Amino acid sequence: MRWKYLIAGGMLVVAMVGLAYFTKPAAMTFDDLLAARQQLESLGLHCTHDCSEGRGGFMLSKEPATTSDAALLCKVGKMNSSWTGRAWVTLNPAAMRVESIPEGAGVRVWGGVLVYGDDALLREIDQILAARANRFF
Description:
Layout: H1 2-22, H2 33-42, E1 46-49, E2 58-61, H3 67-71, E3 86-91, E4 106-110, E5 113-117, H4 119-133
Antiparallel strand pairs: 1-2, 2-3, 3-5, 4-5
């Protein structure tokens, strides 16, 4: 009788490992910038607007930044060192093409939100989200 429990327990472990291996982590999706800001800040990231009114898109970074830092982030041309550890979060313009994404930027579409900038930062965020999604295994 004991061997039946061992076999059943082993099958359960195999099933859980298989489920964890083949389950894709939940993609990050937001309906608006406020929801994106709240979730990203809960990950310990800093969200800085480029204007004092705090409307529209915002700069995402691992380090605290000022409004001036966000305003001076060049969103056209080639990526440069000012983008290191930073990304720009804006609404996903479903009806039009975005012309101001810097050449060489990493890009993510999170539902109603478009994010572009330092691809290393975006990959790190992807890894954090995958770890959170699979934490119970």
